[in-house]
Amino acid sequence: MRWIVVVILAAVQGLTELLPVSSSAHVIVTGELLHENMSTPANALLLVMLHTGTMFAVIAYFWRQWADTFFSSWEAFYRFARMVFVACFLSGVVAVPLILLVEHILSHGNHHAQIEALFHKLNWIAPALAAAGILIIWAGLREASNPDPKPDAEPSSVSWRQAMLMGIVQGIAIPFRGFSRSGSTISAGLLADGARMPIESFSFAMVVAITPLAIAREFYRLVRADAHAGIHLNLATALAPGLLGMVCAFFAGLLALKWLSRWLEQGRWHLFGIYCLVAAVIVQILYLRGW
Questions:
Q1: Exposed, middle or buried, 56 (CB in 10 Å: 0-12/13-18/19+)?
Q2: Sign of the CA dihedral running 281, 11, 217, 109
Q3: What is the radius of gyration, based on Cα positions, of the chain?
Q4: What is the C-alpha to C-alpha distance for residues 76 and 1, in angstroms, rounded to an integer?
């Protein structure tokens, strides 16, 4: 892949990963417009490494907040770690059968398909964007009509009910490009009567927890694909585009986080949902035009 394409994809990923508008959908559509098939093992690995860049942006952005709350004592850390583990476990319980079902549908009774095949199916991305948009608008309008009763709530105030619901919703979001993980999990937390700051913080803590697993999976997939093709994997060649993309995505992600936090605090969450609905229409038009 050309370096300029990597930089463009990294900028798109960084700006949209941490906004509730589905970075995967934006990167995949951008890749299609640039004539790049994002479902190949190398490009899927690139996508995951771009996610890694934004993961580090999340850590940098929330570190002081997490240090003052979740890492302030052993008891606080133990409670936080348990909640993240349970939420991510529930994500896996929901996501794995969904992935298997989607792969079965994509196979059409022929060769086994992988979930990455969705990376170039705009007809699946459009309805996922629309569904995320509706969920975000619902949560945003409901939250705006019932002002946050705990505007100064500590990040550690996420309840078990909210954490478990957010984990389940994240599991639904994982297989579908377009169904934003941050958008769906934060919306779920708000609908479960969570306060803005702790819900946002916990949502991104879950992202940090599962990203290493996604990196390992895609790297294994790339190694297996190259071995099957009789190609010796050159680690430097495989990782170089992704490392560049990680750096670009990191800085773009920091900008996106400041934007998201400001709009969430100002009660503008529903505007992200409206954007998702508009994006869904555009993606559907692109699909109908043969992209």
A1: middle
A2: positive
A3: 19
A4: 45
